[in-house]
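Writing this down once: the sequence line spells out the residues, with the fold written below as integer tokens. I am pasting one below:
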Amino acid sequence: MSDKASELNAAKAKLSELIDKLVHAESAYDKAVEHSANYLGNDERIEEVRDEKARSALEYVMSIKKEIEHQTQVVQSLVSSY
């Protein structure tokens, strides 16, 4: 197998891993948002902590999406030069 083919396969494998990671992160985000939305108490500190967890989960999802975008560009570049 040529070096370009190996490099392309590695890039595609990394993209696949990132997509799997995104699926799990989005699930965790959905749970965090649901957990935050279901709080019916009057304790502002608890609400802030739950909201922060949801915000952190969203930021993580967005960072993975950026990684996927970058990795997609890498794969496209490798394909066009293949």
About this structure: The radius of gyration is 18 Å. Residues 44-81 form the longest helix (38 residues). The chain is about 90% helix and 0% strand. Residues 29 and 58 are 6 Å apart (CA to CA).
